Amino acid sequence: MNREELKSYLESNFSNCQVSETFDFPLLIVPKEELLSVAGKLKNSSETLFDFLFCETAVDRNPNLEVVYHLTSTTFRHDMEMKVILEDRENPEVESVYSLWQAADLFEDEIYDMFGIRFANHPNLRRIMLGDEWQGFPLRKDYKDDVNIVTL
Amino acid sequence: MNSKVTTDSLLYYICALNEKVLIMGSVSIIVLLFSALGFAALVLAIGKIFGLSSTNPEKGQPYECGIETKGVTWIQFNVGYYLYSLVFLVFDVEIVFLYPWATVLKEVGMVAFVEILFFTLFLFMGLLYAYKKKALTWM
Amino acid sequence: MSASTIIFYILAALTLTFGALTVFSRKIFRAAVFLLLSLICIAGIYILMEMDFVAALQIVIYVGGIVVLIIFSIFLTQKAGERLPSRLPKRLLWAILLPVAGLAFSSWVIFNHPFAQTGTAPIEPTVHNIGLQLLNYDQYGYVLPFEAVSILLLASLVGSIIIAMKKKQQ
Amino acid sequence: MIQFSDITSWIHETLSGLLSPGLTFLAELVLAGVAVLAMVLVFVVIFVYMERKVAGFMQLRYGPNRVGIWGSLQVIADVFKLLLKESFAPDSVDKLLFNLAPYLVLAVSFMALAPISWAPGLQMWDTNIGVLFISAVSSIGVIGILMAGWSSNNKYSLIGAMRSGAQIVSYELSAGLSILAVVAMCGSLSVHDIIQSQADGWWIFKGHLPIIFSFVVYVIASTAECNRAPFDLAEAESELTAGYHTEYSGMGFGIFYLTEYINMLVVAMVASTVFLGGWLPFHIYGFEAFNHVMNFIPSWIWFFGKIFFIIFLIMWFRWTFPRLRIDQLLKLEWKYLLPLSIVNLVIVAFITIMGWHF
Amino acid sequence: MEQVPLTHVLILSSTLFFLGIYGFFSRRNLITMLMSIELILNSININFVAFNKYLYPHQLEGVFFTLFIITVAAAEVSLSIAIIINLFRRFNTIDIEDTNTLKF
Amino acid sequence: MDVKKDFLPDYPGEAYKDENGKTSFIVTSVDALANWGRSNSLWPLSFGTSCCAIELMSTVSAKYDWSRFGFEVMRASPRQCDLIVVAGTITYKMAPVLKRLYNQMPEPRYVIAMGACAISGGPFFYNSYSVVKGVDNIIPVDVYIPGCPPRPEALIHGMMSLQKKIMLSKAYVIEKKPKEEEDK
Amino acid sequence: MENQDISLPLEEQTEEFVVNIGPQHPSTHGVLRLEATLDGETIKDILPHLGYIHRGIEKMTESLGYKQSIYLTSRMDYLSAHINNQACSLAVEKALQVEVPERAKAIRIIMAELQRLTSHELWWGSCAMDIGAVTPFFLGFRDRERILEIFEANTGNRLTMNYITPGGVMQDVLPSFVSDLKTLLVKVKGYLAEYDTLITGNIIFQRRLQGVGVLPKEMAISLGCTGPTARASGVSCDVRKYHPYDGYEKLEFKEILNDGCDSWARYLVRMEEMRESIYIIEQLLDNLPEGEYRAKMKGVIKLPAGEYYQRVETARGELGVYIVSDGTNKPYRMKFRTPCYSNLAAVKPINVGAKIGDLMASMATIDLVIPDIDR
Amino acid sequence: MKTVLRYLQEVALAFRSLWSGLRLTLYFFTHPRKEIITEQYPENRTTSINIPERFAGEVVLTHDENNEHKCTACTLCEMACPNGTIKIISAQVETEDGKKKKVLDKWVYNLGMCTFCAQCIDACPQNAITMKNSFELSVYNRSDLIKTLNKPGSKLKEKS
Ligand code: SF4
Ligand code: SF4
Ligand code: SF4
Questions:
Q1: Residue contacts between C and G (CB atoms, under 8 Å)
Q2: Which residue has its alpha carbon closest to ligand 2 atom 7?
Q3: Coil, helix or strand for F87?
Q4: What is the ipTM of this complex?
């Protein structure tokens, strides 16, 4: 499917999600609760077959946190972007997609480390980069560290 | 004293002088042993006496890529090698028996050959058996 | 006293010391190492007695084979750094009594028995002579034991492989 | 040429002029020990230098060339450095065994030198079990390595020691069998006799294919016994950092390093004695003029030349091949070398009895 | 060597023998017991060699006995180690007391 | 080694002096011998964290070949080496490791800070929350080699500077090097 | 598949113990720490610990401008510095819709492919070194050094180049560039033949790699592996083919695939890729377009608000640059999806059950660059 | 028989592959003149060393023969530098016609932090600074790396 087709496909199939597009990809904004079912459909439906999670990251849109999934299909070679918006800044939590794409293991570890977003049912969620002693989540916009950060 | 000794050797000479007192084998071994031990002691002592030294708590800990070790090292350890040394022991004994055999092979002739044929046959059977049982497959 | 006697007594003392350390040491790996040193000293005594071949045998088989095997099995079955548990008092009593009595008795025997040298023409115990006797069918020949050894070893190899590789039972 | 006897008698006379007979004897023993020590150390220094140069040239670079002429003092500088380097036993080790291990390995590799014949008449101990003694003594070394590895209380050391234990004992078998092939042909274990039996041609030339095969097996097996690449699993740097001597520092490590090279020396000496005719010159049967020229080259040059040839072979392997995995290494021994050398020995026995060798 | 009296050699061997006996009885660990047995066997070997050397120098009987004893010792060790390993695998201990109490 | 090579930096510390207060290169021959041995046989720890480590490897490699100076014996265990070349960024997570490695080295030991990261945090000096701003905050440094990464010749130059420093310092004193602040 | 069919003669489990491999370890190529749980020499579990070289690049970009951020990317995967720079520049150009001059594009591709060559050569040397052969390491560096000479002469840096900038390249290549390259490529081909004699054909080396570290295709996809690591498992994932950039669409080249799935396949894929890179460069050399080397850009770059994702194929796999811009001169969020981070995930599944020696072999063929993982 | 043959064949093949590797290293060993590529660095530093013109080793403020530089102290380079290597310290001086004017006092450059990215050179409108291909810069003290680039007494070059 090319980009337009994919977009219309998404619009027709995922009515409770919001569909838009970014510069590069069609974008599907998924409600937090339905993440796993939507992602499972995207991965397994024979029309899309998004079997390759090539990037998963988060963006801190103060005050919301967004988790961004970039998907591609090794069969059809189409890509899309999927987003989950988390409003709870203090205790953000979202379902892990590890059961669908094993690649999520490390990606989600990193997101947890950098943004403090917890992933439910993640096999081994840990502060992979900074270590357990580290205070705060550095990639959040409100991260302050007067000791280490020398600002320009 | 061995009659094959020729005189122009430093060590032979020393031994020959004291023929009555010592057997040569032990002398040479002892000389070598002591020179080795003495050398080792000497060089280690030089390091201790003249070398610099410093202490800090981390210096005494085992090195493991710069991370503290987890758990003890002296644990019960799964050695895949144990069966090898088992088989080795048996073969070692067999080979030791081959040494006297080899020295007289020429004199004894065909009999020795026949005997060794049997001997190695058993050796081979042992090896084959070890194979069959996968004792020599490293785990 | 000549040098060789001095060496003998030194070696004997070392043998006994290491032997004692072997049985007294509470760290099993150290015990194995002391056993090794004791065996080496015994090999030294053999060399002193001009039994070079036996000495070599001692080193090759005992040191190179048996001790290595023992060390490997220590790794496999033991927390080698641990101290061994202390002895049981009941057995300890026997363990001390029996050797002391035995030693007393045997030294009495040794000192009172006249050891008479027989024979006149000594054979040099060289490898060559050993080999000749080994492959000899005469009265003093050892060809049968020689072949028997190979069978014995085969049997022990097969046996130990069977035993060692027996699967764990539930 | 200077005769050794001249020197020795001169030494003896001067000494007995100065000292009482007993002291003379002791002094001479010390002298002898120092002489052997010096000889071995010089060899080792040359080997280390050679290793670095060979490595350099094979790797398209020069190797050491700043310290001394062509870097010849490089190894000496290393020795000075190591001598003055702090050598300590970490608190976590088993101190007794940790400190004992270097002594053991060094003593063992020294003792293996006893039956070696360096030149005509220059031999310490002409025993009737010569080569057997060497292989027997060098098999003690493995215990030293196991001791070092275990007592270090370090996981890398332990794994390295075990590996090298299994490896050394395994390869001892085929090393022994390949020496046996020559022993069977010449009928003696004595180093002196083995050399003399090659007066009309080295065994590697007159022993047909089986002896050449034995030679190859011996070189492979002894490389493995010395823990040299491609069989250097005990200290496989990319896996176990520094293997069984990870925790040794300063001269403690230096002794292990030294021992590695002494072992190589012993191995090379045995190989050149048994297969390449020791200090005997190269002769071609029935080519008198040539033989005559060869006789002019002093025997020690022949012997050292052969030693360096073997050492070069071992180094050449090291700088060419990748390392084997431990199971491949053991498979190589138990599946290929051992059966083949047993068969080889039977063939050799047959040849010997039939008198087919030259 | 001749100057060392035979009795001294025998004393050495018997002391070693009884050291081994002591170890054998006082130890609970199978491997240490095995090591004690090795000591015993070695003391016997010393005896054989010494007798051969001092009393029967025209024969090689003692040497051969030593040879075969060493051989048998090797066979014995390999078997007993195999048994020890097997025991260990079954009971997870090689303490003689513990293995006694567990019924075979 | 000729210590008077003009392209090496001036040695700032106290070169040792004889009774007349004159600077002399050789006070005692033992000192000189020890220093000669040490300076010509610097075995580095095979330690590198990032980009600069590649240049370190280039220096090992055939074109630049620091084995000419006898430095090629890279030991993987700190017990056997004399020198750490800190090649690359040191983060706060790595700092204890580096410190531990340094502590586990036997005396005498030397440190070279290679590259901007090791000297000051380099490109990651500002705005980075996890980079140590210079390894001299953790361990004392003997020679600094600027560059990002320094080219292999620069590393050899740094090594020669270290040789010069060793040659000019006392052999039997562990120099107390300034340590600016404790690491985190 | 030697590992698989070994039946274990001794079934007992002895105590497991934990060995740290890294952070200072000669064969993790940096400061990766693998916490391996071993039973004897068998690996029971591997837990990678990262962050020993985590430098906070993503945070830093948020306070630097776009231009200044680009130079940070060459410190990530420093063996593919050009390609990293290229990725960032492409993302910026895409957002600003700047047309890059043809000459600049060609130079970029040449540089990128040369970079791939150097990276693979270095990998080849260090891979062989991990297996235990030292000489190849020197050969690999010798050849790499030749290419570096060209880099150095043209870009002014050997390793962490900052040559490719938004709009083109920093400065024009030297006049002798083409002729230098032509002589170089002939040499490099000869070097590749040497590699084959020394290592590829070597039986020990083959046996060390064959059947070791098997990464099945499904697992490679699921783990998100890219680059040669994935292609050796038969996953077709070459960004240069599927999302061509900078004119790769006009060039003729194959995507190297191999179905072996093991370390040996990965080795072969990389060796083939070197030849393919040479082929690509040769196509461009003969008709290097003339003209500008850099489009005119403003001094301060401001991207229009929005999200941009640009991917390129580095020597290790797919590098994605994800930029979220809020319209100011600094990126709001910049995420680098680095190939090594995903490939690292493969380390655990392919090594559990293997031996320590195999771990090194499979690590060597996955070819991780640790700062690329940690950023 | 077949298995034996295959076994031997395996052995022969293995030896062949090993020998080809050995031959290559032997070739390297025996042809040092042709193959060795080592540069003898400290000796060749005045002769054959190859440091390309463009090599970025150090930022320098170019001075001409009258000890004049072109820097107007506009601090554009300071702003362009990603990691604050440059500090431009300017001074106010009064020109003859009484106007206050900013001139360069100190061009402070921290070599220990510079990453040689050439952003400053790109940014400088006056082309006052360039990269020098020097590389022998190691020092014993970190403070030695902080340099003042304008030479003492140097002046701004007058526009001609
Ligand atoms: S100084 Fe530069 S090249 Fe060196 S580690 Fe730091 S960023 Fe990398
Ligand atoms: S160097 Fe150039 S950019 Fe920097 S202050 Fe001077 S004139 Fe301005
Ligand atoms: S080269 Fe880069 S880091 Fe150095 S001063 Fe210029 S802008 Fe700053």
A1: 7
A2: H71
A3: strand
A4: 0.85
